[in-house]
Design brief:
heterotrimer, A alpha/beta (289), B alpha+beta (154), C alpha/beta (122), A: 289 residues, alpha/beta, Globin-like, Transcription Regulator spoIIAA, 2 domains, 62% helix, rod-shaped, B: 154 residues, alpha+beta, Heat Shock Protein 90, 34% helix
Chain lengths: 289, 154, 122
């Protein structure tokens, strides 16, 4: 709630904004939380200058207890932006929030000087400024959190994609050698990337080799079948190779119907079929002398 | 998140509504004409992209929405859809609820079966929508309409 | 009302679907194509859906219907450019599009069409 003292605070800050900024920067540079190893001094000075300006605007409005209104929109946006970039740069949440909290000391010092003759005033204004800066500091954690989540999701996706190598065996023939135990989620991602590669390379045949897969459960078998169906819908074809006797038994026991899916015991056999399907012929050079 | 249903026929996928989530935004759209379905697909796409859905997830939820919207329009005589964005910690989701005041479904189990059935033809759409969604619920009362809910988590 | 344009390329008809169609537009396309196949005695139809990021059961049925009707009129149909996400979704929907030939792109599609026209059972 705006009070008679608020305009004075706003004037105070406006009148002393240069020295406030200098003192604030000095404080930040002295603190290890500022992480000068992660952020350059000119970037820090720029961020501080912009925030102080937005802070002044907010204080001028007189609304010091509530930072959710329009008068604090600039400050909020700026803090969001700074938190996001710091999250990406590798700052911790505490280090990021300390950007705002470190402004307290210079402001308290300013208040102490101005209200030297009115101690009660110092206490009141210090309390209000402290609460205000607390609110603003907490805003940084929200944006920070969101950015961290986005980064983690993206990294998870990239990891999954990296571990699914699709090999171009020949013109218009792809091979996907699967290795290890497959879980439902990974199989789905793998299959999706195979389909993308088919389109990218204009391949007509994709060989899914499961020689390196010890066991296949119903879900994985279903994903394989769905992948074959999707490949056909797109206008290409799929061969499954490397089905060992144990897996063949499992598939039959599970009641999974491979139907019209072409299967071959080895990758080599599958490759030979694939070549025929794409109309390629293999001839051997006649030996010379 | 699972309220008591006033409908007589109910089907829910196991664990429907079990994830405790907060609703971060809601859009409401009419489903009264076929142009509404096109518009709805567009809005669902925008929301899905905003939540960071991958391409396949986007396609699945938009297609499922299209199926249910068409049901509401063609068999339900028109209705509305509520598009709610969900947040459960790091997980983000999209929940679509289609409500119509049409004749309702007599036999829910039958309606969920796949296969093109002449006449009602409901078969293909509902079963498909269920498979495309992470969670699915269908509630209906003959004479009082139908409510179909799908949730897709990112 | 807008219509999806149908191009004539020799003995074939070419359709490129680039918009998210509402139901009437799809039904109109079905009708127009059937009419044109008959009028031109077309030997084949190529439908390119590389711009479509969603194909639901209605559009899927439209494609299957076009193929079936073309067959009755002694014409072959090839659908090209289906996107992976669309293919995956159609499989989940349970649509197999039986009897519809598909190819990765228009170029391959034309080759396939010529093959099919030359040897319908092949």
């Amino acid at each position: 709630m705006p009070s008679a003292a608020s305009p004075r605070i706003a004037d105070l800050i406006a009148k002393n904004s240069k020295s406030l900024l200098d003192e604030w920067l000095a404080h930040q540079r002295k603190s290890t939380a500022t992480r000068s190893d992660l952020i350059g001094d000119s970037e820090l000075a720029e961020q501080s200058k912009r925030f102080l300006a937005a802070f002044e605007t907010g204080v001028e409005s007189g609304t010091l207890d509530d930072t959710t209104g329009d008068e604090w929109a600039d400050a909020r946006d700026l803090l969001s932006e700074i938190s996001r970039s710091r999250a990406t740069q590798g700052f911790s949440p505490t280090e990021t929030a300390s950007f705002v909290f470190s402004l307290k000391q210079p402001i308290f010092d300013l208040l102490r000087r101005e209200f030297a003759s009115v101690p009660q005033q110092i206490a009141d204004e210090t309390w209000r400024m402290s609460r205000l800066l607390d609110q603003l500091g907490l805003l940084t954690t929200q944006a920070f959190q969101q950015t961290r989540e986005d980064i983690i999701m993206r990294q998870q996706q990239e990891l999954l994609e990296l571990s699914t190598p699709v090999v171009r065996l020949w013109d218009r023939v792809l091979a996907l050698p699967l290795v290890g135990t497959l879980d439902s989620a990974r199989t789905q991602v793998v299959m999706e990337s195979l389909l993308e590669r088919i389109v990218e390379t204009g391949s007509e045949v994709a060989i899914i080799d499961i020689t390196g897969v010890p066991t296949v459960d119903t879900l994985v078998a279903q994903h394989l079948l769905k992948t074959v169906a999707a490949t056909r819908l797109m206008g290409a074809d799929c061969i499954i190779s490397g089905i060992r006797p144990q897996i063949a038994q499992t598939i039959v026991h599970l009641g999974v119907d491979l139907g019209a899916v072409i299967t071959k015991a080895t990758l080599a056999d599958a490759f030979a079929i694939a070549l025929k399907m794409t109309g390629a012929t293999v001839t051997s050079r006649s030996s010379a002398g | 998140m699972v309220e008591r249903s006033g409908y007589s026929g109910v089907f829910r996928t196991p664990g429907f509504g079990a994830v405790a989530a907060t609703i971060t935004q809601v859009d409401g759209l009419p489903v009264r004409r076929s142009e509404d379905i096109v518009r709805m697909r567009q809005v669902v796409r925008e929301r899905a992209i905003g939540l960071g859905f991958g391409l396949v997830d986007q396609t699945k939820i938009i297609t499922a929405a299209s199926e249910l919207a068409r049901n509401a329009l063609v068999y339900g005589g028109g209705g509305d859809v509520e598009i709610a964005q969900l947040a459960a910690g790091m997980r983000k989701g999209l929940r679509l609820t289609f409500v119509d005041q049409g004749p309702g479904i007599d036999d829910i189990q039958q309606a969920l079966k796949d296969g093109f059935t002449s006449g009602s033809g409901l078969g293909l759409g509902l079963g498909g929508a269920r498979r495309l969604a992470s969670e699915f619920a269908l509630e209906s009362q003959p004479g009082s309409g139908t409510r179909a809910t799908i949730i897709r988590w990112r | 009302m807008d219509r999806i344009p149908i191009l004539k390329m020799g003995e074939f008809l070419l359709v490129t679907i680039q918009v998210d169609m509402h139901d009437q537009l799809a039904l109109q396309l079905q009708e127009d194509l059937t009419q044109r196949i008959s009028d031109e005695s077309a030997a084949g139809v190529l439908i390119d859906i590389s711009s479509l990021d969603v194909v639901d059961s209605f559009i899927g049925r439209m494609i299957a219907n076009i193929s079936a009707m073309a067959q009755v009129l002694d014409a072959q149909t090839v659908v090209t450019g289906m996107r992976p996400a669309v293919a995956i979704t159609l499989v989940e929907l349970g649509m197999s599009l039986e009897g519809v030939h598909t190819a990765l792109n228009v170029e391959r599609g034309m080759t396939l069409l010529r093959q099919k026209v030359a040897a319908p059972g092949g």
